Amino acid sequence: MSMRQLQRIALLIFFFSINFEVYDPFHTNGIFSLSKLTGYIYLLLMMPFIIRITTNDRIKHTLRPIISFFVFLTIVSIAHVNTTSYGFFDFSLFQNIVLFWILLNHEQYEHLILEKGMLSFAFGSVVLALLYNAGIGIDYAGDRVTLFNDNQNNVGIRMSISVIVLLTVVLQNRLQLGKLRYLLLLPVPIMLTLMAESGSRVAFFSFILAFISGGVLFKTKKTWAKILILGIGAFAFLVVWQFLMQIEVLNTRLLLSIEHGDLSERDIIWQRLLPLIRTNPFFGVGKTGYAEFTQIVFGQFTSPHNVFIEVLCLTGIIGLLIYLVFLYRIFISSYHIYKADNLLLPLLLVIPVLGLLLSGQILFVKIGWVIFGYIVGSSITYPQLEVFKKHKSKLVN
Q1: Predicted pLDDT at 26
Q2: CA 61 – CA 88 distance, rounded (Å)
Q3: Residue 74: which of 344, 274, 269, 322 has the closest Cα?
Q4: Pairwise CA distance, residues 215 & 360, whole Å
């Protein structure tokens, strides 16, 4: 077996294992997990390739702002080192940036590898849903289901993303899977059930918005075909909506949001972080200062559950602007890919990413970086994309 084949297999297994990101069978308190193991194996196998990497201008164009953000975060963290927290180098974020870079270069020399990786990720979600259906690894926090001690929102958003992937793979068939691809629809009801039982509102809205957007944005050459697709899509949407609304935990949490504006105490966390932002509006307090502040205010390290607020706390307005440039270049890539070749999946995956940005965590979560890699990687084979037409010397640094 060649090194390229081993690298391909390692990537597919790694994507698959992201569904078990916190699964720790040896009870090491997070030191070991299944996805960490497969991720390190993938990085190890890619080491010979890394030495020979020639990163093209498109990849550099996207990497520049996130590398600048990381450097700025590190400098601010050093400036705010304290007795509570002196870990100024964010190794987890650094790993994700390196992974992002490697994934882009992997796509550069093996076309569609990241598309196959996204399908492998969806297969991992299928296995997770089947384990849920069999009653294996299930636990409950209140009335919300989770598996293998993972966060309920993480479980829900993975199901939402994976169903979007499966539907798009079947609809557009870029991987040339033939008629057998319709079998991929069989586990969708179980996956939607698990998504709903997790009680994740961001997962629910991400799926609903992506489903509607996919039907509206899908292009056909014939008007009657478009009308047919919209009709089938509308019927399917009504069936799915009725199915999901019958699941009590999701229905209850949606009603709480609508009637009482319930945000699961996120609004309380945001209010208590405002003094930190007001005091350090331009540069933030870095990872070290944030850890000290949350320890004093909350008694423990606490995530804001909003990436924009988190970035403001860590790096202030300057860091937020740099990070927004990074996001913009990714999102605009997904739009131009859609315009160039009607490729829906990168554009649809922006929806759950926005959900994670607004009410979750993405800086340190593997699925976010995998999606970023897939979106930008998909643009590599499209030289006609307007966003990349400018000469190298004119690219914004």
Answers
A1: 72
A2: 26
A3: 322
A4: 26
